Fold these 2 entries.
Entry 1:
Amino acid sequence: MHVSRTRRGLWAVGAALVVCANAAATDLRDWTVRDSVALTYFTTYQQDAALWETRGAPSPIVPSPDGRHFFFVRHRGDLDCDCNEYTLDVYSSNDVIRQLPGRNGSAGGKPEALRKVALRSASNDPAINHARWLDGDTIAFLGTRDGPQPQVFSLSVETGKLVALTDGRHRVATFDVRGDAIAFTAVTATKPLTALDEYPMAALKSDELSALLSPRDEETRVLFAGAGGSARAILELSPGYQGPWISEDGRHAIVALSSSTATPNRQIGFLLIDVRGGSARPVFPGTPTGIRTEVGRELRYQLPPSAFWFNDSRHVILTNAATPGTREGDSESTAAAVIGYDSQTGDWKVLEPLRHGDKGRAIHVSGARWLNSGKDLLISHQTESGQQVDATVYSWGKSGWHARSMPASAGLPSGDREALLKGLKVFVRQQLNEPPIVVAQNLGREVSLTDPDAALRGIWRAKAEKVEWRDPNGEMTEGALMLPRNYVRGMRLPLVVQADYLPDAFMPDGRAPTAYAAQPLVARGMAVLQISHHVEGRTTPREMPAFVERLDASVEYLAAQGLIDPSRVGLVGFSRAGWLTYYAITHPRRTKLAASITADSWSGSFGEYLFRAASSVAPAVDLRPFEKQFGEGTYWEDKDAWHERTNSFNVDRVQTPALFTVHGKYNQPWAFETIAAFRLNKRPLEYLFFPRAAHQLRLPREREASLQATVDWMAFWLQGETTSTADKDARYARWRTLRAELERLKTEPASGAR
């Protein structure tokens, strides 16, 4: 166990600071779950409809192509209307420069937004989504203004006029606009699935089994395209499509379609759309037209197929496509590639097979962005382990396609975009304990465009202190610790570990707005530690024990510092971190967890494995994550490894009260295996269901329920506390029964010891 002398000194100072802060903050009230829901967040996925250019980018600032303007989008939850409020603020670069202090002897001022759009959404759809510049004056986005169905809007910066570009009849999902040309996809009909209702008998086919056992409404999605204010239906789309992407002249568009037929690999076919004529044809006639491969699917962070048009409106680059012209199932056709395509002649060229090094290691496209719009396209790459490899810049000239390599760092997203704003640097300034504000800088002068979130006023907020410990692999690892306002040196606090951590961003409750409730937990007298669940051996059998080892090392470090009570430790994980939380309680080591929460996670269960095998149109693709994670091959080829590693096979080892949540009807089938395993082994389980929720909870009341469940569950098991209200009394009665069962369990002989 590594315990640095520097850290011990910091804790001595930190304890004194806590006492001083408490004395100075007696007029501040405690943080509640309602405060968490009301926080304002910047939206960082606006710039490109395919989510390529800003994926993972640190800045939400979106500059206009000519650098004269920029915008950003923010959102906050409102519990009173159970809706999310979105605002889009547009600024003039010249106006901001004029307001900088010291210019012409002035003291400067606070620049005002040139235009502002404010919309609300009471559904899982954002009120402002996929906003992007069409030119130096016009912004387009998906929005909800006069009803719940998102429509395409355009905003003129010059006039401030907001115009709907679609007629409101259908729920628009994706779009692209060039001049007066538009292409968009929309849900035109929704009905419950009616699989296998043929009388008197129906054949059970794989592509119907998913609909039978995992109920969801059947949506009819249609591609529309047109110009001059009208658009016609072009074709019905299968699930898993991407696009559309329109050429600069507005004449053509490309869309990627996923095959719904049962094939060894999932097919991705690119179609070329005549926007004004209303026709469609395959990009590669008479071929499989591209395959999303086994290689691609097992790479967790692969971005979807996409198309990038060059300025000549003729040449386009297709990413994560397969080599055309090969037979289905051939090794060449299962290797994704970057392809250059001539939409006029139909000629194509493999610019880059997605392999790396002498051994041909699989790589994938992790990002793509224009260095010069429509001229130079930078494509960044990652290996399966997440390592960045050299990026490539592609351009088109009279002699054909050109490529040049750039260092891996060049492929990382740029958050500041200062070159596009002609010397004005605009960015979001924030730190772990510093709320975000938008700042503009030029020639050493700066001005703030926004104020810290007003929702933070009058509330005591626990500061996050960075801590370090040594993982068992010898590497130093960082996390963030928060302590209650009444903490004094020598107190051993109950600890809640949240299995996600982003070191340099202001996220006072945790990295996700689902389940993570750091500030309300601290307000209830618990310490909270945020750790990263990204460990060595990701997507391999090594990942799970490496996570538990990190958990043990972090808890033991804090216990050695005299800060926490190691017998009162809870663990919370969302999504993949939730699955690792489930592993931690079914494969316990030194830390004996007193409570756990697994929020809408990948099940990783044997039941889901069998379901995928029976229902998938591409079983070789969809089963690979299971077979790579738990063994060497199928379950029957490596039973012992599967039995040891799979969570549901080890529920008999659980000694921890477990709360699970599931979001949406589609995920219901995976609940039966967990509930049955806990029930048959008489293990304490609470299961909460959010029937209308997205994976990441969005609506304020859903978020409030999730965060309050976290606080109540941890307070009950780690502190023995309840907050009695009429709506909670029945829940606490169940939990008291679980506690009595757990006490009986502890007196019984150990079961399932390994």
Note: The domain at 5-30+457-605+646-746 is CATH 3.40.50.1820 (Rossmann fold).
Entry 2:
Amino acid sequence: MTPIQLPRDPIAPAGPRSSPGPWRVRFVQTADRPGVRWVLVLYVPVALAYLLWLAFAVRWTAWSGPVMFTVISADVLTNIAFLWMTRTILVPIHRPSSLDRIVDVLITTRNEPIPVVEQTIRGALAVRGIRDVLVLDDGDRPELAVLAGRLGAIHLARRESVDAKAGNLNFGLRHTDAEFLMILDADHVPQPQFLERTLGYLDDPSIAVVQTPQAYYNESFLFRRGWSANDMFYNCIQPAKNRSNAAFFVGTSAVLRRRAIDAVGGFATTTATEDIHTALRMHARGWGSVFVPEVLAAGLEVESLRELYQQRRRWAAGSMGLLLRSSDSPLWTRGLTLAQRVSYTSSMLGHQQGTQRLAVQLLPIACTLTLTAPFTGRPVVFLAITIAFVAVNWSSVWMHARGTFHPLHTEGSQLATCFSNIAGLFSAFMPHERFRPTRKNARRDEHSFVKVALWGIVALALAALIRDASIFLGRGGPAEPLAIGCAIFITLNLLVLLDFLLPLRAYERRAAAGDATPARRISTRPHPVAIATLVVPLLLAGGAAVAPAAISVERHFPAPRSSPVQAAGHHALDLSNLERPPAPAGPSTCSPGITAMSSGCSPRCPGGAARSPPRRPPTHCGA
């Protein structure tokens, strides 16, 4: 992950200030592309105008109309919230620390491999300014206790593993009196300068948490060349939250003030996401937070689609439970500013973006298979306006994402979480459901129903394209415009879906073959199947664009009807069965033996010389 460039010039001085009052964190705005400040101003009226037009264009009597309007409206509201939050990115001005504070490290672990935990312990012990390293082992493994003692860390294991990770952290709080706590997951190895780059911000007495990005050192299918599924969150969204004091704790790679944790009753235990829940409680009680976009620790990203499903399901369940069921919901809890409410609500609803992407995938397929149009009016107008608005959507997000948005990679990774988002939404209302930690030694190519379901969507899309092609080639009448429109959108959706599935397939094959390819080396070259899936519907759409012109020309300039002789061909002309019209009263201008046809007399008489066609209407010559 490429972090945001930190400001070079200003550095906040260490030590007490000459002016009265405590020191406060100061921020500086990062340089943006020209025109970023106007994107939100221009996007909002365009989006509202499009929704107003769509409300009149939607076929409300059909099932597909309200579904389409709901999906598009949700996407528009999500984009407006994103553009509003990320209109300005602020990074804190670095403040050096004298490292004279008492800081303990809490490492939470349950079933992670011992070598993985060992790397984290060694890294924590190497951080300058640390007093003690506490290994909170929910698995109570004797071999880990021996390892911790040998390395110089403190091993702590509780008797009952209640409240998952939050309960483990609260257990660790009872065994330390440190003023500040550095929280690490079992697989996140910190750099020695971690406290030197973060502890100074806690000189501000109002700051409760200093959070850094989550970075990863292993290979994962969520990485591409120069792109990661987490880049937008840690390089754009979290730094932008500094503006509204809404950057939140993400569970690892952070330093927290002990007094702030005690003020909110410890780490929150009523949801599956104790990190964002605890941060929300702190913000509601007036505490502040700082996000430092500098990679100071690295861990292990999920390496299989099955583990991604389990992880994102837990995140979705915790976020939606906090939003819809908890008394600490940002929708109604007291103490938050309006900007903080919007920021937290948008982050929690972000765990349902996969559901929205799934609806976008299935809607044109369902419209094709049922021949149900979700709109009224001319299809060409609807397609032109909608495709133009999609381009406006992607362009605005690309501008505000500061290089972290990829139209295919970002959309595909969000689609991959659709089933975990749906399952998490139902799990949000099951407060007693327990979630297991993400496995760090899972097989990359292990079976997952998510993969089967996504390939099933590909099969449905191909079947729908075949149906669209049959309608178009068979001149389907009123259904032909609908088939063309659905084919275009199905093609775009297939491109997004295959951009995720085909690199995933290559990644799993390499893992099965034992190929230790470095991280972020997954090929992004278009696959032949993806190219074919793109070209065929585009040719279909091109034919649909040319067809109306051809039909118009045919109506205005009809072709002459063929005579029986022309229909018979030029090989064996049998003229004996032709009906001979009665001879005209006047003399004929044709020589004997010439047969008059609808196009004129034959240019050559049998056995005679060639003659020019007559000027007056042709007649039948006598034998």
Note: DSSP finds 19 helices and 16 strands in the chain.
